[in-house]
Amino acid sequence: xxxxxxxxxxxxxxxxxxxxxxxxxxxxxxxxxxxxxxxxxxxxxxxxxxxxxxxxxxxxxxxxxxxxxxxxxxxxxxxxxxxxxxxxxxxxxxxxxxxxxxxxxxxxxxxxxxxxxxxxxxxxxxxxxxxxxxxxxxxxxxxxxxxxxxxxxxxxxxxxxxxxxxxxxxxxxxxxxxxxxxxxxxxxxxxxxxxxxxxxxxxxxxxxxxxxxxxxxxxxxxxxxxxxxxxxxxxxxxxxxxxxxxxxxxxxxxxxxxxxxxxxxxxxxxxxxxxxxxxxxxxxxxxxxxxxxxxxxxxxxxxxxxxxxxxxxxxxxxxxxxxxxxxxxxxxxxxxxxxxxxxxxxxxxxxxxxxxxxxxxxxxxxxxxxxxxxxxxxxxxxxxxxxxxxxxxxxxxxxxxxxxxxxxxxxxxxxxxxxxxxxxxxxxxxxxxxxxxxxxxxxxxxxxxxxxxxxxxxxxxxxxxxxxxxxxxxxxxxxxxxxxxxxxxxxxxxxxxxxxxxxxxxxxxxxxxxxxxxxxxxxxxxxxxxxxxxxxxxxxxxxxxxxxxxxxxxxxxxxxxxxxxxxxxxxxxxxxxxxxxxxxxxxxxxxxxxxxxxxxxxxxxxxxxxxxxx
Length: 614
Ligand code: M6R
Prior knowledge:
Elements: E1 3-8, H1 13-24, E2 31-37, E3 43-49, H2 52-59, E4 68-74, E5 89-90, E6 96-104, H3 107-116, H4 126-141, H5 145-154, E7 158-166, E8 169-178, E9 183-186, E10 191-194, E11 206-209, E12 214-219, E13 224-228, E14 233-234, E15 239-240, H6 256-262, H7 264-272, E16 276-277, E17 282-283, H8 286-289, H9 292-297, E18 300-305, H10 307-324, E19 328-332, H11 333-336, E20 347-353, H12 359-370, E21 374-379, H13 385-389, E22 392-395, H14 408-428, H15 433-454, H16 457-466, E23 472-477, H17 482-496, E24 499-504, E25 521-526, H18 532-544, E26 548-554, H19 559-563, E27 566-570, H20 578-596
Helix pairs in contact: 3-4, 4-5, 7-14, 7-15, 10-14, 10-17, 14-20, 15-20, 16-20, 17-20
The protein binds 5-amino-5-deoxy-1-O-phosphono-D-mannitol.
């Protein structure tokens, strides 16, 4: 949720840290702060409410010299977003500073103990408790800062990725993690740390993914040692980053979200690369082929995910059941992890997560594995916690998704689930070779069909101006397009703050129809394939109550078009591929409505890109 960045080396730390914070701002953006140790060994902490830009203005006339520092962009969990609660936090003596991503669950008990020992606190955060505890451990055990960190973390319940600097030792940076991600960039006698690789990639492509309960001590001479909480030394494994700088820029787009929507054709091509064989007209996913028996024997598939990834999972259920006849259940990870679900060793759990760091999905994986299930992870971020915790899986390969509202990861998730379904169907022979070949042919056309769909951008922009007045929206779809209705509604809520609900179109008459009047915009996904006639009747019901109909139809449609106030046409495709096309106009509609309402679409209020807390 929060973004953390740190630097130790021979360059000035401030510009590196600020640039890193800008890259991480998508993770949290209610306040930001920075701590630096200068050449006179002063430790200065500067922090402010607001965005990284506000922090830059705040420090404009301050001393920012120093070659070691840590910085943080916050998404509030404990205590309101203000400068006191912003990170870094000082220890009582002012000697140590710490940044933290995660939640210290037992912070109240620890705080009371520290108060009874004379410690005072200047914030409402759990983080300040941690730095005071570290200092207390160091003083009371008369030990090194590294040992104090180890002792303190043994007393902590919860999740953390932390970085600490100590003004009495400006040649050392300490980092540790449990439950929240932390990556170390290894340069030439310099180290960078980040909650993800985005602040690191500009300086080095050599990285170490810190594992659960590991503590790293980085030294100015280029040495690094890693131990776990039980003090067992761990061998640092240096990996090469698959990320380049240009992927982190907006190119000529005004917002990352729009760039990511428009990148979908290319993103999906990359996603399918090497997986669709156009000569043999087959699908090959190494995650399936390498574990063929598991999939052949599977009695059930359980999909666990949150938010947009959960919507992709729902579409996955329709496709997997249709093509493979394996029963599929789709669970919110946050419910699954706590409800004592029935899981057997014949189950396959598919965990879907763009960030690969969603805490609830990570916990769902652990539960599934503890109960003997086989876990297949679908993630975008390479090397992420979920990718590493899964038994096998597939990456989306859409590049970094920076906009908080997920767009290209969603279409890639649906595409990947489609590939999984097709590959299992081939192996199980639940559909004929000829049918697979037809689907392969059509799937390959999808990127170009998204391109055609994107041509409606300007028209959608015009429609969006008309609907800025709306306080509510209803989205309707059936079959494969019911989850698309949910996703369209979520996109609108997230970035425009307009209340929106998605329903299976036929459910409308069981309640939501009461909401429809001449002010209510109703978005209906009504492609030719699937339950077209049924959806047509649902549209009649809305029309009869004077709702404003915005329809998504197959090119050439006339019947729905005639009933609609506004109509958007998508190319025809196989019924099971329609969601990949029908969601695109809904993404654009949300984007343009949000822009027309003056919202910050890339960083909508109260949200964060990576939800690493429960
Ligand atoms: O990284 P994940 O896919 O696990 O994230 C899950 C949700 O937090 C995420 O999809 C969220 O709903 C997005 N903001 C949707 O746009």
